[in-house]
Design goal:
Length: 189
């Protein structure tokens, strides 16, 4: 049985699927070294907040180890898990670049090791390293396209059941070639 892992939900408008490997792939040694100089490694115990929705952006978080849940505050003591971020993902990128408050909160679901880059240092890095700046633009643009592609089919579905069916079918397509079924893992907490 082939397995496909979907740790997130449908709300892909956030940075969480931007991966460190995508950001640093094929960059010059000098550029990678510039990244290493400005980052600071932090540890977050299980349950602790990495950053909070509505706060001014402090910088970019590179989730090196562990898992974090991204939470949207719905008011009246209600919240929605937007996604479960996995090791290797970049968090807070669009908020940091736009100087807009974080769209969601990030809470350590397990003990996490995070490389943090202060906003001013990150913006200076983008200014001084054009290949990093261009890569960030590419990744954010790709994220917009993925988000639009993800939501387009749901506008056409008439009911919640039809939307769920389309989602499950799209996940099964990712496991094409499976002959004995598909197992979908969806960790939500």
């Amino acid at each position: 049985m082939r397995s496909t892992n979907h740790s997130g939900s449908l709300d892909c408008f956030f940075d969480s699927r931007l991966c460190i490997n995508q950001l640093l792939k094929d960059l010059s040694t000098e550029t990678v070294r510039a990244f290493e100089i400005v980052k600071r490694t932090r540890a977050y115990p299980k349950g602790s907040l990495i950053f909070s929705e509505g706060e001014p952006p402090q910088g970019v978080y590179l989730l090196r180890q562990g898992r974090a849940r991204l939470i949207l505050d719905l008011g009246r003591k209600r919240e929605r898990i937007v996604e479960i971020a996995e090791a290797g993902e970049v968090l807070g990128l669009s908020a940091t670049i736009a100087n807009e408050p974080y769209e969601v909160s990030a809470q350590a679901l397990t003990a996490c090791r995070v490389d943090f880059i202060n906003r001013q240092k990150f913006l200076r890095l983008l200014h001084e390293q054009p290949e990093v700046c261009f890569r960030v633009v590419q990744l954010l643009g790709h994220n917009v396209h993925v988000s639009c592609d993800l939501f387009r089919p749901f506008d056409k579905a008439p009911s919640a059941a039809a939307k769920l069916a389309r989602l499950l079918l799209s996940w099964c397509e990712e496991a094409e070639g499976a002959t004995d079924g598909v197992r979908i893992k969806i960790p939500l907490t």
